[in-house]
Amino acid sequence: MNLHELTIVEAAKGLRDGSFSATNLVQACLDRIAARNETVNAFISVFAEEALAAAAKADEDLAAGNAKPLTGIPFGVKDAICTVGQRSTGAAKMLDAYVPSHDATVVAKLKDAGAILIGKQNCDAFGHGASNENSMYGPVKNPHDLGKVSGGSSGGSAAALADNQCLFSIAEDTGGSIRQPAAFCGVVGLRPSYGRNSRYGIMPMGSSLDTVGPMTKTVEDLALVQEIMAGHDANDMTTVPDAVQPLTSAMNKKVEGLTVGIPKEYMELEGLDDEVKQAITAQVEALQQQGCIIKEISLPHTTYAIATYYILVPSEDSSNLGRLDGIRYGSRKEGDSLFDVYAQTRRDGFPEEVKRRIMIGTYCLSAGYYDAYYKKAQRVRTKIMQDFTEAFSDVDVIIAPTSPFPAFGIGEKADDPIAMYLADAFVCPAAVAGMPAVSIPAGKTEAGLPIGLQIIAPRLAEEKLIQVASAIHS
After folding, report:
1. Which DSSP string do the residues of 203-237 spell out, in sequence order?
2. Which residue among the candidates 78, 111, 141, 464 is catalytic per the annotation?
């Protein structure tokens, strides 16, 4: 038995019936990391000693009958999420030695449920990117084809999971940073509704879009982890007070009678890969055979989602990153004046993509351009939200590709930022609107690259995502 290949549910059963110990399970993942991480480059930091100590404690709890839902289950965390006493770099030189004094709320909840943090995962610096090539630690490689990208910005989280280096990952999704790499690497990834999960302890990018969610091997594992992560947090006033739905009870619930919307703007997009379109169409037909009603819908403002996103997020980003000046925390470059300290620290600490977005955002917020860009983008954002609201008056969920194409080659789009941004064409709209969405595997191309299918549900209706996702990916 290869323990590192187990799902959460399988591992939890094995731990409880004594088939193996938590120490065995954690060691299996550590061995896998040791054998593969130099090649895949998914983990930035590995906490072997701490993880094994936690595993020993988990074995004591299991023996005493005090097991919690995730006792003994090893997981990884995107390095843009804070972990107490353990380096959290955001994959940027600016924070190469930053050690937080607290855990992110979602991390604390998972630890309280018995999960064991095994390490921090590579990502685009501060979450800026769609390929995980913008990291001070180098690109993460796709386990399915080492010449391809893993997706971004949470590529390390997806690749580590796809390569069986951990049993689940926690990552962050602003415009698609969980769903797109999940699609490229062939795993399950959830962007929850904005406000469903706490953002406390998450390095901010676009604060009005940022969410944090799980990546898992199966939909059942996803439901289990999301139930634990979700809920109101007094430290994050954007979290909603609504009760957390029992997502695991939505597993394998019949989908007969549900209406599934297929947005023509997604399926008719120029540049949509034929194999991706065929795979999505096949899964939709399978749902129809299970009794779903399939309906073509229109989301007319989809075409503006990328432009809207790349005004709103850089604008919020330029404000959020203003705190990184080399004075309060982070690495510092010395200079002859305070201005020189700021300038040289940021020059060396921020990679090119981060600088590009800061400049775009600062421009959009500047006097004379605020109304023309940022304010107008907010108006278009409202139109995009209205598109979804109108659509969900007629359908229960929306299905579309997660990405227009499978994983592309490392370096293939590096010199063309606009082409790189278009990789998020299908994931941006739901993010801009604050809707929950999940990416699940929907097959592979002839070349063996995973294809992702995206399911979008009304706000705070994650149980519908689980219901439909489990009907497709059991």
Report:
1. PPSSTTT-EEEEEESSHHHHHHHHHHHBS-BTTBT
2. 78
